[in-house]
Amino acid sequence: MGANLSQLKIKNTDVPFIFEEDKNLPIVSMQLIFKDSGSLSDTQDGLTQISASLLNEGTKKEGSVGFATKLENRAISLSTHAGNETFVIEVGSLKEAFPYAIARLKELLSDPNYSEETLGKIKTQTIGALKRKESDFDYISNLELKKMLFEGTPLAKPSEGTVQSVEGIELVDIDKHLGNHLGVNNAIVVMGGDISEKEAAAFATEVLSLLSKVNSKKIETMEATAKRQVKEKILNSEQAYVYFGSPLNVTYDSKERHLAQVASFVLGSSGFGSRMMEEIRVKKGLAYSAYSRFNINKTHAYFSGYLQTKIETGEEAISSVKEVVQTFLDKGITAEELKASQQFLLGSEPLRNETLSQRLGQAFQEYYTNKPLGSAKENLKKIEAITLEEINAFIKKHKEIAELSFSVVTGKKG
User: Fold this and answer.
1) Is the Cβ–Cβ distance between 262 and 334 less than 8 Å?
2) CATH domain 222-410 topology
3) For 252-286, how does the pLDDT look when each residue is reduced to its tens digit (9 = 90+)?
4) CATH of span 4-208
């Protein structure tokens, strides 16, 4: 068992086809994933997210309620969502209902609900959510951090857009955006379930044949900048919301990703027992939670973290984060920390591959990051073989993570 990769020939274009047969349950799922089509491809702030929302509103003929009723009557899930780099249309159902589900997906792609009434509803909902975020101090602090680290790039902008940008989006903008990005030549198909590969390929071909070729631009790589600054916003807050980040010179296809995974785990992404949690919460009592991670994506990589503390202890918390990171770089990790991280990462791997959805997701990530399918198992062997000298040499090499910038949303000191 396991996913395999082949190609579907559609309109003289080879479309990657990731498939795994699984007869444990009588269900089938399909994802159409469009690369270089996520929020980072926006020509207007929030356009990708609004476009995804519109595709969740059914067809123009049936309307949102009529189309949703058809799906519900057959227990079909059909949804669209967008990440930073990709745009995804997902459909799933019981095996017996899957031909009907594919027919409805074809209707949706052929007749999206391009009505002013529907767009007005989506814009009202989105603007309402954006206004609520004006008092979401975590959101504000994190967004300000992105503006510092990735100034002048799409990452510095809110993926949901702003009230002003959302108000300016029209149906013609959505039509153009989807027409420029949902193309057969930037599609990847991920399918699985109680279905043969031949049947799955036939369904996928049926849908993909509706799509044209597009000239979507590749999302450019973005690098975090080292500013070593603290930016503070005084709002009506009773706590200090501290988000921090710095450059991280590890690429998505680096041969040292397994080392980065262990380093990130020990420093701040493992919860209790991590350096951040131990030093900042357990020993100093400065925060309920303190977390950090290495973010390694195809278009960007950076080190980031957050904590929430009392207004009076905000400066002390910032100093503590700097101290924890510098000590981590100077002294590396201990043999006990390496062993504990290896045991956890190796022991929890079966839990990350229990379901078909998890396995297909992993297979897609392997393909997307230019690795052979099944390479996660090789990654585990690499983690198991890491020596203390090897991991500490890697850590000492990445001094750029000490070039920390801090975004703080806080209140007036009493």
Assistant:
1) no
2) Cytochrome Bc1 Complex; Chain A, domain 1 (3.30.830)
3) 999 999 999 999 999 999 888 899 999 999 899 99
4) 3.30.830.10
